[in-house]
Amino acid sequence: MPEFPGTLNSKLPRAGTTIFSVMSKLAADHQAINLSQGFPDFDCPELLVAHTHEAMRAGHNQYAPMPGILALREKIAEKTHDLYGCTYHPETEITITAGATQAIYTAIAATIREDDEVILFEPAYDCYEPAIELNGGKSVFVQLQAPDYAINWSTVKKLINHRTRMIIINTPHNPTGAVFSADDMLQLEKITKGTDILILSDEVYEHIIFENLRHESVARYPHLAERSFIISSFGKTFHTTGWKMGYCLAPKALMAEFRKVHQYLVFSCNTPVQHAVAKFLDNKDHYLELNAFYQAKRDRFNSLIQGSRFTLKPSPGTYFQLLNYEKITTEKDTDFAIRLTKEHGVAAIPISVFYHQPIYENMLRFCFAKKDETLERAAELLHKI
Ligand SMILES: Cc1ncc(COP(=O)(O)O)c(C=O)c1O
């Protein structure tokens, strides 16, 4: 192929390939156990696959309605009401998206203009900042505070000014596993009251929270819900990250703006999968028992790591576990992650990449959404270091 003959002025000059793709490829190249990218190595429920086949055979193979099939939106409305006590109208306040990533981009593109400021917390999941940048906004970073990655709300309050358009929150939090308390939500409510600030609440790990902690969904707080886009993902809840299906909840006026962008970004999402998920949502036990399922995985991984030279950080939510390696080496996490993959056969994600300017905390993120035997083999290798 000949080279592009003109000058390319990149819209994302600092962006490379995401760390998740880089580490997964490195793991594959070196036949390492891949605890880097966040996806299960076990299968999704057989019934969900059966429902998808049925939907395909029943001829649900053409475009779905732009906001998603009504049956699925109705089931999401019911689930959200049952769990968080908030009523979203399926016709006007719920849209099915191609995963949470598309929902996040859409909410940002629909509301952020040139020079708008968006407050986000670091370390941060990597798709927020590029979406803000592509839409001309300015990311304003607030660091989560050690040791438990808490938010200092008085710092947040000081950063708010007439340009602040949005605050992005994520609980349970990737990559740290931290979760918001009720007090965090009340603080957020206090500092946004009487402003035009929007909230984007990334709740993709809403069903992966441990020790009977309550998931503090924005939907529980009417004064937050009235200004919020809430985003979730069936990929995390049903072990189907490859199906890329999620949804967005928002009050009618916000959702109308969201849909203006959504219709030109994807128009609509995978039809048979929507039918299958709508039917599968009747199996409430699946998502109600997910906390216990993943808590057992986390506890298993943690007990397997005991006695190694890695130190565990508490992980009250998500399927990620941070391990501190300062007893092993003073290498940068990016260097150690590569060496760990190549020389020791286990791939993990360095935490510094979740900061806009890397902060090195001697910490790696391990995904424990894996079969027990995978976790056992990985722990065996980690013990040898
Ligand atoms: C915090 C967070 N938000 C959003 C996403 C993206 O979800 P999806 O795969 O549904 O696009 C992920 C996936 O890892 C995530 O961890």
Can you give me a brief rundown of this structure?
About 40% of the residues lie in helices and about 15% in strands.
Produce the secondary structure layout.
Elements lengths: L18 H11 L3 E2 L11 H12 L12 H15 L9 E4 L1 H13 L5 E6 L5 H7 L3 E6 L9 H7 L4 E7 L11 H11 L5 E5 L19 H4 L2 E6 H4 L8 E4 L2 H14 L5 H10 L3 H5 L1 H16 L5 E2 L7 E5 L8 H12 L1 E2 L1 E2 L12 E5 L4 H12 L2
Parallel strand pairs: 1-11, 3-4, 3-5, 5-6, 6-7
Antiparallel strand pairs: 2-8, 7-8, 9-10, 10-13, 12-13
Helix pairs in contact: 2-11, 3-11, 4-5, 4-10, 13-15
Describe the model.
By secondary structure, the chain is of the alpha/beta class. It has two domains: 19-44 and 288-383, Aspartate Aminotransferase, domain 1 (Alpha-Beta Complex); 46-283, Type I PLP-dependent aspartate aminotransferase-like (Major domain) (Aspartate Aminotransferase, domain 2), CATH 3.40.640. The chain is 40% helix and 15% strand. The strands form three sheets. A seven-stranded mixed sheet has the order 2-8-7-6-5-3-4, sandwiched between helices. The chain has a four-stranded antiparallel sheet with strand order 9-10-13-12. Strands 1-11 form a two-stranded parallel sheet. The protein is globular and about 55 Å long. The N and C termini lie far apart (45 Å). The mean pLDDT is 96. The structure holds pyridoxal-5'-phosphate (PLP). The site of pyridoxal-5'-phosphate has 13 residues, from α4.
